[in-house]
TrEMBL record:
It comes from Ananas comosus. It comes from the Eukaryota. This is Haloacid dehalogenase-like hydrolase domain-containing protein 3. Keywords: Hydrolase. NCBIfam families: DREG-2, HAD-SF-IA-v1, HAD-SF-IA-v3. One of its GO terms (molecular function) is hydrolase activity.
Length: 303
């Protein structure tokens, strides 16, 4: 099968958008100008990065018949993609870790305070959360990457800045807690059967995450490491999302071209823009798709 260039794909997609003037449709993975207002509203409500919610499929979004336009756009996009790649529209699925595949079992500030009480931490959970956000947003000047190897220097800075406690025993207890299955939950309880279906259909899978070297033990502890053919973790590949390098590395590990892969993640900047800069398709978790079953069906795999 002849390879179709990324430029040709982008040109066709832009032409489709121009003809239909559609509202965002989950299957088309595209957004119209109304998205800007929704994103501003999301920011005002404090939903954070990747918090853009789906615009309802109603006439209010684009004028009368908006829902019909969405259905037509979705169908045409899927037919267009399948005309190039066949019934299975992507050879590989790349998945973000935190916020998409897994999530903290308890709020971070609650754990920082609970473990920290015996070490003299006095800040409230709200204070810890505010200090954490401030510290995390500061430029990290110790190295080019935040997560180098086990990430200890970066996390020591975060913990001490968040709690005011620099006790090494406190840090170690907290650090090791987040390497266990007690600290994490799978976002989608039905994910296992979906990844089994993807494997049977020949779709390769990889985790792509800004994380330190604890990610592999975490995946093993949650018994989901076997779902994936590869793991591209920033601490190991020396590149953090949205740097396209980490996505290109994941594709290299899987033996696919970027245009043959779709990445799913919950952060618009790191996951969506980063993946698209690498040449991959990209779907926003919590907006374009809400479950891994939806992801599989979007690829053309029935679960």
């Amino acid at each position: 099968m002849a390879r179709v260039s990324r430029g040709a794909l982008m040109a066709a997609a832009e032409g489709l958008l121009g003809r239909l003037r559609m509202a965002p449709a989950r299957a088309s993975r595209c957004y119209n100008s109304a998205a800007a207002a929704v994103e501003a509203e999301a920011a005002a409500e404090g939903r954070g990065l990747g918090g853009l919610r789906r615009i309802p499929a109603s006439g209010a979004a684009v004028g009368g018949g908006g829902g019909r336009w969405e259905m037509l756009a979705a169908k045409e996009y899927e037919e267009y993609r399948r005309s190039i790649y066949g019934e299975i529209t992507h050879k590989a699925l790349l998945v973000d870790a935190v916020g998409t595949l897994l999530e903290p079992a308890q709020p971070m500030a609650q754990i920082y305070r609970k473990i920290g009480e015996k070490y003299g931490v006095e800040y409230s959970e709200d204070e810890i959360l505010q200090r954490y956000r401030w510290a995390y947003e500061q430029p990290w000047g110790k190295s080019r990457l935040r997560y180098v190897d086990d990430g200890r220097p970066f996390w020591q800075y975060i913990v001490s800045s968040s709690t005011g406690c620099s006790d090494s025993q406190y840090f170690e207890e907290l650090y090791h807690y987040y390497a266990t299955d007690k600290a994490w939950l799978l976002c989608d309880p039905d994910a296992e059967k979906v990844f089994e279906a993807l494997r049977k259909a020949g779709v390769k899978t990889a985790v792509v995450s800004n994380f330190d070297t604890r990610l592999r033990p975490v995946l093993q502890a949650l018994k989901c490491d076997r779902w994936f053919d590869a793991v591209a973790v920033s601490a190991e590949v020396a590149a953090e999302k949205p740097n396209p390098t980490i996505f290109l590395k994941a594709c290299e590990f899987l033996g696919v071209e970027p245009e043959e892969a779709v990445h799913v993640g919950d952060d618009r900047r790191n996951d969506i823009w980063g993946a698209r800069d690498a040449g991959c398709d990209a779907w926003l978790w919590g907006s374009d798709v809400y479950s891994f079953k939806e992801v599989a069906e979007g690829i053309g795999v029935k679960v």
